[in-house]
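Known limitations

Files may contain more than one protein. Parsers should not assume a single record per file. Below, a two-record file is shown to illustrate correct handling: read the sequence, read the C-alpha cell line, then continue until end of file.
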Amino acid sequence: MTSTRSLTVQSVRARPVAVPLQRPIVSKVGLFHNWPLILIDLYTEEGVVGHSYLEPYLAVAARVVVPLIDTLGAAAKGQPVAPFDACRRGMGSLHLLGREGATLIALSGLDMAAWDALAQAAGVPLAVYLGGTVGPVPAYNSNGLWLGPSDGLAEEAAALVTEGNFTALKLRLGRATLAEDLAAIAAVREAAGASVKLMCDFNQGLSLGEALLRCHGLDNQGLEWFEEPIAYDNLPGYVQLARELRTPVQLGENFYGPRLLYQAVTAGAGDCVMPDMMRIGGVSGWLRAAAIAGAAGIPMSTHLYPEIAAHLMRVTETAHWLEWQDWANPVLREPFLIDNGQLIVPDRPGQGIEWNEEAVAKYAVQ
C-alpha cells in the first residue's frame, strides 16, 4: 500500500505566459496567434511543489485571475493540502462575490495544483492516487481545422492525422452557408480517410433558428457530435436541438461547477458533456461532475487541459474522448506522448507536468 504524506500550504506562485500556436485559432470566438496560460506552483512546507495551469483565452484575463490566485493562496497559507476542504471553504467564501467566472477559475487552478502535490507526495501518478491505473486514453486531434480558408483544409486534415496516427479530428463549422460547411466536411473526409471520425464545433456561433436549419442540414453526415451550436446558457434551445437531431449534441465546456452540469443533464439539454477543468472546479469539480454523468449514463469527454484531464478519464465511469491540443507543450519540460490516436498517461508522480523554465522566461508576460 502506498503511504501518503500530509502537506501544508506554504505559498503559491502564478505566472502568465503567452505561447505561440503552430496553427492560429480562427473561430467564432476570435483569432489567436498566441495562447495565454497561467502557470501555477503550490509550494508546501514539506518541499513538494504542485503544478497546474489555466487557459483563460484572453491575455488580459491574467490581470484579474492572477491577483485572485495570489489572494486565495495567501489565505491558504498554513492550511493542510486538502482539496475537498479547500473547495468547500473557497466556494463558501464566494457566495457574495459570485461562484462563476474568474473566481471559480482561480479556485480551479489551485485545486488542480493541490491534487498534483498530493499525488506527488504519495509517489504515484494522479490516476493511481484516485484509484485507477495509468495507460492510454482515446483522443482526437483538435489542433487545427478552424474557420480559415477552405482551400487549405484537406492538406491540414491529412497532417493532423499523421501527427499521432489519429482516428478522430475536430472540425469547426458555422461558415456562411450550409453548402460551405458540407464542402468543408467533404474535403476533410477525402484527405483524412473515410474511417476517421469527425467531431464538429460551432463555438456558440449560431442563433437557435440558424442552428435548427444548419444542424438539420448536416444531420445526415455521420458526424460524432454537434458541439455548442448556440450560446451555452440557452438550455431550452439545447433541449430542442437534442430532441430533434439524430446527431448527438455536445455541450458543457462552459458549465461553472457540477450543479450546472446536473441542471443540463436533468433537463435533457444534450447527449454528451465535456467539462472544462478551469470552469467545472478543477479535479474536485470533475470528480463530482463525473459522478453525475455516470449516474445518468451520459458520455463524458474533456475540454482542453489534456495532461491533467487524461488522468481523470482513467477514473471516469462514462469516459468518452479526450480533446488533444499541444498548446502547453512549449513550456513543458517533458510533453506527453500520443501513440495511435491515444494519449499515454505517463507513469510519473502527480500529473506528470513540470515547467521548462527557460521557455517560461522566454514567453513570460510582464
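...continuing to the second record:
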Amino acid sequence: MSDFFSELSWRGLLYQQTEGAAAHFAAGSVSAYCGFDPTAPSLHVGNMVPIMGLVHLQRAGHRPLALVGGGTGMIGDPSGKASERQLRGVEEIDANVAGIRAQLERFLDFSGSHGAQLVDNGEWLRSLRAIDFMRDVGKHFTVNLMMQKDSVKSRLEGGISYTEFSYMLLQAYDFLELNRRYGVSAQIGGSDQWGNITAGTELIRRTVQKEAHGVTLPLVTTSSGTKFGKTEAGAVWLDAARTSPYQFYQFWVNADDADAVKFLKMFTLVGHEETEALAAALAAAPHERAVQRRLAAEVTGLVHGASAATLAERVSKVIFDRRIDARELPADVFQTLVTEIPCARFAGEGAINVLEALERAFALSRTAARKLMQQGAISVNGEKLAAEALEIDPAGAAHGRWFLLRKGARDVAVVEMEG
C-alpha cells in the first residue's frame, strides 16, 4: 500500500478500491478528485469524510482536485435519496458553489507542485450539446448496466425520472473531462458513489484507453445507530452563520465515548501514537472526556480557525464549570455567550432584582424562582446566593456589564446591564 492507503486504513477511512488502485498510487504522484454537490449553500459535517480524504491525499504527495458541481447540481445526485430532488435555479446553484468553494479552501493547500485546485463542472456541462453527449458518452453504457447500480436500483420501485437516471453519465463524463484537462486518474468519494465512480473509470478506459481508479470512503454512523451529523436543531453545517463555532464545538465535544476515538481518527490529523494515548486516557478516566475535548478543538480549528476554536472552548468551559470566576473572563467570551445561552437584559446601572432576573433568564414564575432561592440553587458569578438575597450588586459585574446566573448544576444564563 502507498502511504495514502495506509493512512486511510488505520483511520477507518478506506472502504472500497478498484483493482490495482494501491499500486497506481504507489507508483508516483497521482491527480485525484472528489465532487461536492452544491444543492445547499454550505457543506455539512458529513462532507468532512471526503474532504479529509483529499487532505490525506495531498499529505501523501498527491494532487487533489475539488470539483464543485455547478453543472451536476442542476440535476442532483439520486444516490442515497428516496425521492426526486427539487431542481435548483442557476443563480442559486452559482451562489452555493461560491460558498462551498470558500469552505474547501480552508482544508487544502493551493500552493506548490502538489497544490490543490478547485474546478466547477459547469464550465463544460452547461454548454454540452445533447446530441454530442448521447453519441460520445451514452453509447458506452447499456441501460441494463445502469439499472444494476445501487443509486438507480433503490429508486426503481418508487420511480426515478430520466433526469436523475442520467446523473451517473454526467459524473462519468466529469471524470473523463478532468482526465483530459488535468490528467486526473482517480476519484474518491463516499461509498454511495461507487457506481458513479466505476462508470467513470469504465468511460475513460473505453474512450481514451487510459488507466483510472476509484477509492471510496465509508458513510459514517454513530454507535447508537442515529444518523451522523444530525442534531435536534438539524444538520451541523460548516458555515458559521448556520452553525456557530460554539454549537459546532458542542457537537463534537458531546460525542459518545463509543464514537469519540473513531471520530478523532476520521476527522482530525492527530497522529497514531497520540490517538492511542488519548484512547487510553478516555478508558481510564471517561469523565474527563480527553478524546472529546481534543476532537472538538481540532475539528473546530480546521473548520473555523484556531482563534474560533479557542473561544468556543472557553465558552464551553464557562457553561459547564460551576466554579469559574466570571470576572476573569475576557469580553469576547461574554459576547459569544449572549448569542448562545439565555440572556436577561436590564437597562440602567442600578441593582438588579434577583427574582426578576430568574424570571427573564429561565422563564420561571416568581414562585418557582423564590423556591429555588430558598433551596440555595442559585449562584451569580460562581458565588451561591443566600436565600434572603434580593438584589445583584452591579459593582460585581464582569467588565462592568455582565453576570453569570446559574440555576442548579446545568442551567446557566447571562445577565447583561445595558446603557
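Parsers that stop after the first record will miss the second one. For reference, the second record is described as follows. The domain at 333-418 is CATH 3.10.290.10 (Structural Genomics Hypothetical 15.5 Kd Protein In mrcA-pckA Intergenic Region; Chain A).
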